Every structure is written in structure tokens, then in C-alpha cells.
Amino acid sequence: MNYRRWAEELVELGQEMTEKRTLAELLSSILNGLRRLTGSDAGTIYRMTEEEGEDYLIFEAAQNDSVDFSPKQGVRVDVGSGSLAGYVAETGEVLNIEDAYKESTSLPCEVNREFDKKFNYRTKSILVVPLKNRVGRVRGVLQLINKKAEPDCLADETEILPYPESEARLVLAAASQAALALERATLERQVQEMLEGLIATLVSGIERRDKVTSGHSQRLAEYAVKTAEVIHQLDEGRWEEVEFEDEEITALHYAALTHDIGKLAVPEEILLKDNRLSDECMSALEYRLAYLESINEIEDMQQLYEQVREANRAHHLSEELQDKIKQLAEITVELPSGETQQLLTAEEYDSLLAEKGTLTAEEWEQMREHPMATYEILQQVNWTEGLEEVPWLASLHHEKLNGEGYPRGLKGEEIPLRARILAAVDIYEALTATDRPYKKPLSDDRAQKILQEEAAAGAIDRDVVEVFFDHVVGDSEGLTEND
Ligand SMILES: [Fe+2]
Ligand SMILES: [Fe+2]
Fold this sequence. Notes:
alpha+beta; two-stranded antiparallel ribbon; 18 helices
């Protein structure tokens, strides 16, 4: 055995731990390194995990030089004497088996022969070691199979040797690197889960207040991530150079889920407003109209009621209705007390004539503050590395390329691509959502026209709109139905 090679390989593994990005990549390279050193034909790594208080092993990586197979991820193995890995996970012992079939009766557990049968393979020597963390807790199991006399040959072309005890000890030492990686990944996963729990709570906070838009953020997140993934894969024109790292996509996902969190700071009567006047205002106005009728000052009362009610509900006021409201505003009523009053108060007048939706200019101002509030709320979260830009991205979902957006009025290049994706799919979701009681959803064709018009007006990114409608809309795979 070449100790120098071992030392070098261990140093290399340590080095790789700081470089490999995902747990799967890291475990594969550890497995590969140990197979190389021991001349093993095959090997497997399992990770210990827990569900409802019960420990079990999950299969993480498998390699085999002689059999071409694609390992199934996520297969579950019970801890205990049902299998070699389960036994080692339970006891923390090393199992060093010279010939699995010959020794099968003297082993503390059964050797699974399914793989051998299926692939016409012969498992002979096996070395199974526990992956223990610093306090000796088993975090996983590593299994090496068939040590070859000539490592470059296939298993059936060369002699299969037993693992010498000295080698088993070295594998055990090297395996602690894998244990460390598993430990670190478990911690990272816990932090991630905590973060996701926190986000889910925040999002359900807004959506519980505003049932009308429930599911909006979730759908937006699906549209946004899908669009970014398509852009990442596309290799033509403007997208040739554009690539997203995994963290960048994750940041977009979180930004989309949380983009409207700032609506928590918008008063409920504004958030939920779907009439221009509150019920109280409307009955006071109707009372005044009835009074006018009773003193015979208005002829076609029924029509007038209808028009006021229509204006109250309308998201967009026709010119005819606007004129009608202006005429009404000129009428003064002499009350029984003798004092005179305008038929419409100044607030009623403003509300009924508000340009956009059913919110007055002042209410819109408050509504338009929500992206800034989103930013401030999200800034308080301690985002993990790579996700620090979530608050910034989320707060840009109403920015427009021509500088007419809010809250910052950023322009063109100042708005990053992922924020442009958010802006486009936010409009699409709002137009096509099926669960808004006061508004009919638009068809995809109508929505596409509107988004294209917005793009032509320089508000949103034309190419993003194109990718979205060409590759994401209508592609039901990966997108859930509106719920
Ligand atoms: Fe928003
Ligand atoms: Fe939104």
C-alpha cells in the first residue's frame, strides 16, 4: 500500500471540500477518490436522516465501473440488521467482508443480492464504514465493493481481493471528511428550512389579509423561476451570454414569493377596497339623493341611482359617467335644517372620479409604498450567503424601464434582468388570475397583447415577454394550475 498516495489523496479531498458546491458533487468525489485509492470496482454513500423521530438512511451516491446503471436517488434504507449499511448505521462498527456469499451465514445481517441478480454482477469483497461526526454520531454509511487486483480492469476480468485491515483503517479516517460534509449539509439544510418556514409565514400573512389575491405570490414565483431557467438554457441572440447560478434562481424564487410582503403596511380598507366609496359613504349619498327626490328636485331618480352605483364599482370610468359625476357635483341640497350642502362631498367626488382602479390618488400613494416596505421588512432577515440580494430584487417589481415605475423610478440598465422578469410576470398574473371576484380573468392572448403594449411603451422588457409567452405560458409542465 502506498501511504504517500493516501496522504496526497486525503489532502486533495480536504481541498475539494472547500470547492465542491453541492453535497451530491462532494460525496461523489469522495467516493471516487476512495475507490481510486483502494482499487474498488464499486461504492455507495448513504446519508442518515430523520423523519418523525425515526432515523433512516437515504442513498446519496453510487458508482460502479463494471455495470452501467443509473442509481435511483432518494431510496430509503432502514437502520438495523436488515442490510449491511443499516447494521453499520445502527452499531457504528466497521464491516470488512472477504467474500459476501461464502460468509453470508456468519454475517450479522443479510447481503442484498438484488443488484447482483439484476445486473449479473458478483459482489465479493465489501468494506462498510460508518461516517461519524466529531461526537461519534453516525451521519451516514460508506460502502466499497470488490477490491480489484488490477484497478483498470472490469471486475470479472481480474482477481477480487479482500480489503487489508490497514486499508480499512485509512478508509475510516478518510470517511470522516464525508461525515463532515454531511454534517455541514445538514446544518445548511436546517437553516434553509428555517428560512423557508419564515417566508411561508410572511406570505400567508399577506394573503390571509387579502384573500382576493391568494396564491398570487406562489404562482408568480413559478412563472419567474421558469422564465429564468428558460433564459439560462437559451443560447441565441441576447441570451447567449446570460447564465444564472443556482443561488441566483433561488434568490429570484424568494424575491417572487415575498415581493408583496410590504402590503402588510397598507391599511386594510385600502388593500381590500373594491368599491370607490365605503358602504357608509354610499348610504349617506343615497340618503341625500332620496331626499332630493322627495322634494322633487330630480326627475329620473332611478337612473341616477344606477349611475352612481355603476361609478362606485367601476375600475375604469367611461367619459359619460365622468360627466355625470361632474354634473352631480354641481348640485346643492338644502337640508331640512335649512343649511345647504353639496350633493357630493369633496372626498366622494375624488373617490368617484379617481383615475385608476377604485383608489383615490392619496390611497394610491399609500399603495405605491408597498415595494419599499417589502424592502424594509426583508432587510431584517439574515439572508444566507448568495441570497443577500432578495430584498433589493423583491423591491423592484414595480420599476419600469422607462423610469415611470415606483418606488425608486429606476431606468433601463439600473433594473437587473431578474427584476424585469418579476415585473413582467407580476402583470401577467394579475391579469389572468381566475380568483378575483370583481374582475374577469383575461385570456392569454389578451394578456399577451397588453404585455406587448407595455413593452412597446418602454415599460417592461420586450425579450422577457417574448420568452415568457413562447416558452412558459401554455407549457403546463412545471407550472401548476391556478388554484
Ligand atoms: Fe406589488
Ligand atoms: Fe404582485
